[in-house]
Each structure stands twice: as structure tokens, then as C-alpha cells.
Amino acid sequence: MEPLLAGLYALLDPHLLVLLFAATLGGVIIGALPGLNATTGAALLLPFTITMEPIPAIAILTTIYCAATFAGAITAILINTPGTSASATTCLDGFPLAQRGEAGRALGMATVSSTIGGIISVVCLMLAAPLMARMAYNFAPPEYFALTVFGISMLATIGDGTPMKNIIAGAIGIVLATVGKDLLTTVERFTFGFNELSEGIGFVPVMIGIFGISELLVQADRLNGEPKLIHMKAIKLPSRDDYRRVWKTILRSSGIGTFIGILPAEGATVASMIGYNEARRWSKTPEEFGKGSVEGIAGSEAANNSATGGAMVPTLALGIPGSPTAAVILAGLMVHGLQPGPTMFTQQAEFAYAIFWAMLLVNITFIFVGLFGAKLFARVTFVPVQILWPIVFCFSIVGAYALDQSMLDVYIALGAGVAGYFMRRFGYSVVPLAIGLILGGMLEKRLGQSLIMLDDQWWLMFTRPLSLLFFVLTILALFGPYVWRLFKQRDPLLSTGE
Amino acid sequence: MTRYVVPCGTILLCLIAYWLSTRFDEVPPILLRGMQPADFPQMVLLLIIALSVLVMVFDPPIEHAPIGLNAWTSMGLFAVFALLAQIDLFLGLGVFAGGLAYAWGERRIWGIGLVSVLSPALIFLLFDQAFRIRFPRGLLTDLWYG
């Protein structure tokens, strides 16, 4: 109880509250700007937080995460362009409803569902993260190694790439993490004589490159076509009838979103898809889906916002990112010298709870931002890309330089941007690369420690129940989808979805 | 075509990295605890090679639209930036930003001025004054640093 209150007290600093409100507005703008999303926004703003204390720094990043995820719905509804991929399913019903002249009702539903979903997930985060951390307290290096392998195996299912390409991208990230001095032997690897590489490749320039600069090149391919804004008079809170129709959907999607968020590497996009599908499956009027169903909006928005809280559970409790943006936040934690994991809730409990409170606060703020600012924020989408992206590039480059004040980092960001563009083009998602880079060092360290502990008899890892469980889960995560597809092909009932 | 070119390119890079890893210093066996420094990267590189072979064999080929002129121009401007940044980081940023805005269709003078002069200058002041970041000396930054 004491750390919970200490965290709240730390957050109640007026300067911090103003900063968080500004971060909420900034996050909403980022979510509404074309091509920018929560991950890119967090990566670009990470350098700004370097000089701050850990609580405001990480609270700002998590606020950006929540706010940008929420803001995706505004543009999804008003201009049929999801601000973030997590809001793609919101377009399906939000835009048709807006076209029918009910944009205010659609935005009201999205705002309320996002707020409730977000609050439920933060409450789950407050309860689950310390429990998970306590469970992990007894983990020895083999369990940690197996858990990290499991976290990396989940990369197979994220992003737009095929599972094999995702694993390749993740493995490239792991190889990049081996650059610099080996932790156990201090032998230099892949440094090519650059002293600056002795400490390894920095997370920040690579993230800025693969999320920010590569997006610039993606936008270059999409310069044509201007979205049209649907006019609305004012945002409308859901009526009693609407609430009666959607409360079950909101609760169900919040549960789904939180659970999906907790799974390592899965994020809001997957959550919103499953939340939307489940809303349609349980609905009494599934025929309305895709034509402007409020249940569809609620299902999608409650799920994607609740995934943000869920994703922070493994990030803080185990040091395994629950989503791409959580990976950037994890990088932020490491840059600030904080060690996520079980010790966070014993040695830095005030910090952890301050972050929880910050997330709760930002979710409550959505109601006001949604009610009073949606119309204005939708206009942000019309900032000309030829003005926006040169400025984003300047921020990216200066941000990449700022952390270590090294020009090498600028060139790393530039190289990562071009490489990220070609990876995306050839179907290799860049998200696994980022997560591989973050987890790679940890994976190698824990493998090394396990081998020392088990006297080089690596097979003994399979005799430890918990590590065996994680290895089994890894195999399921990697091969489960293929086995399921095989079953579906053999069973005509499953393949027709009846 | 890319079905084979991309995995082959990946395999080639991995083989080069593998060869480089064979040149890492080794810890004498008597002092060694755990793995040699090259073991882990080599293991991961072999995994990438194996998966790239599987991608070539099993993954369906993807149809791509050719890379557009705007993307090539932007990459060309990256090269210009990289060269100009040797003279001055902010000179590079200004030329890049103005060039990109023009290449993407901005023709208004105030628009090009905003991105090429005002925004790099404001970003410089923000990082210099608020975050106390010291930028590398160059043609323009010397005007500020003296």
C-alpha cells in the first residue's frame, strides 16, 4: 500500500501533471498525424526524456503510448484513415456511421470505450504486474533464458511479415545486439575499430531509424491522395440505449485486449482485431457490422486501448516487451539505468506505481480530450506531408545524435532507416528487429549464466519444470499456427468456420 | 526475383559476419566459463541462414510495385545530407529538409523556408538551450559557439 501511495504522491507534482497533460495532447497529435503512430512517436521523443528524472521520462513515454493509441480512432472515424494500425478495425464501422451523419456519436462511443478499456487494463496492470514479478523472483538464469526465448518466439506472429521472416528479422536484431564488448569475456566483436561501438549499438538511433526514417521513405511512396474530413457538429456521449447495447462488448474486449497485451510482443493491433471479431460473433445484430455498428467501434477501441496496460505487465515485471511501443519504453528504462523485472517492485516500487498512476490519469483525460478536442485533432491530419516529414527527419537526426553526442549514431540511424525501408518492402517487419536488439543482450547473458550454472550441460535446462514449460510454449508459438492450419485443411467444418 | 535475391543477400551477409566472427579473440580453455565470444553470434547467424533457405523454398513470392521516384529522391537526399553533415550537421539538415519539401511538391517559399531554415534553427536552440546538448563544430554551429 505504501509504494502505491508514494507513487501517487510522486505523480501529483504540479510540473509533472502539466508535463503529462502536454504529453497527452502531443500523443493525440502524433496518433492523428499521417504515418506517425505510438511507436514512432515514443522513439522520436525518447531523446527528449534523456535529461529528465526517470519518473517523468517514462511517464511521458507511456502517456504518448496511451494517447496515440486512442487518437487513431479520431482519424479512423472522421476521414477513414486509421491514425494507427490498431484503429484499422474502427474504420470499418466508425466511418460508415460518420457518413450517416452520426460522427459525434461514433466518436463518443470510441472515447468512452477507450477510456473504460484503458482504465480496466491499468487496474489489471496494478494487480498483475507485482504478482508476475513475485513469481519471477524465484527464476534462475535457465528460467529467464527460456522465458526470453519464449518472448522472442512470439515475434513470429507480429507485424506484417510471415513467421519465418519475422524470426529472421528478430535474429538480425539479436546479432546486432552482439556488437561491442562481450559481457562475460570482454572480447570486442564486430566493432571494426570504432571505439564508439565498444559499448554496442545504441537502441535509440536504431529505433529512430527503423521506425521514423524508414516511415519517411514509406510516405514518399504514398504522396498522392488527400483524405476528406467528415463534418460533425459536436461529439455526443453514448445514450442509455447505446450503453445497454455495448457494455458487455466493452467488458469482453477490455478482457481480450488486456490478455493479448500481456502476451509478449503482441500489441494493440492484434487485440483490436480479435476484440472486433469477438464483438461481431457475440452480437445479436452481426449483420450491422461494417455498416456503422456501435458495437463494432466499442469492440475495437476497448480492445486496443486495454492492450496498452496489458503490454506494460510483462515489460515491467519480466523485462519482456508486450508490444512494439513497450519495446521503445523498455529501451527508455534501460537508457535511464532502470532494470525491469522482479526487483523493480521491491527496489523501485515508487517508480513502478507512479507509472501505473500516470497511465490511469491519461486514460481519464481521454474523456475531456475526446469531448473537446476531437474536431481540432482531426484537422491535424491535414498538415501537408511535405512540411511534416522534413521536420520529423530533423528531429530524428538530432534525437539520434543527442543521446551519446556521436555522429556515428546519426549514420546508424540513417542506415537503419534505409535498411528498415527495404525490410518492410520485402515483407520483413522491423518490429522484431527492434525487440531482438533489446532482448539479444539479455538472451546471451542468460544463456552464458545458465551454462555456468549447469556446468556446460545445457540439456539440463529441459529438466527444470518452469524452463521446460517455456520451451514447450515456444514450440507451440512457433509451430502452433502451422498445426492449426493443417487441422483446418483436414476438417471441413473448421475450414468453413461453422 | 526478390524471392531468391533477398534471402541470398541475407545469407551472403551472414556468411561474411560468420567469417568475421571466426577472427574474434578466444578465451583460453582453462579460463573459459560458459561460451566463447564467437559462439552465440555464430549460432544466431546459422539460424538466419537456415531460415533464409526455408524462406526461399516455402514462402510465397510477393509482388512489388517498383520503388517510386519520390523514394529514390529521398534516399539521394540522405546521401547529400550525409556528405553535408561532414561540413555542418545543421547545414545538412537544412539542405535536406528544403530539398525534400521541394521534391515532394512544396512550392511555397514560406513552406520551404519553414522546414529548411526555421525548423533546424529552432531544433538546434531547443537541444542546445533546454537539453544542453553540444553539437559538433561546423560552418554554422561555429557562428553560435564562437
From TrEMBL, chain A:
Question: What keywords tag this UniProt record?
Answer: Membrane, Transmembrane, Transmembrane helix
Flavoprotein as UniProt keyword: no
* InterPro entries for the chain: DUF112_TM
Where would I find the DUF112 domain in this sequence?
17-433
Transmembrane portions of the chain: 20-46, 58-79, 106-132, 144-161, 316-339, 351-373, 380-403, 426-444, 465-484
Report whether Repeat shows up as a keyword of the record: no
Q: What's the domain of life for this entry?
A: Bacteria
Q: What is this protein called?
A: C4-dicarboxylate ABC transporter permease
TrEMBL record, chain B:
Domain DUF1468, chain residue ranges per copy: 10-136
Q: Which domain of life is it from?
A: Bacteria
The residues that cross the membrane are 40-58, 78-103, 109-127
Listed A to Z, the keywords are: Membrane, Transmembrane, Transmembrane helix
Q: What is this protein called?
A: Tripartite tricarboxylate transporter TctB family protein
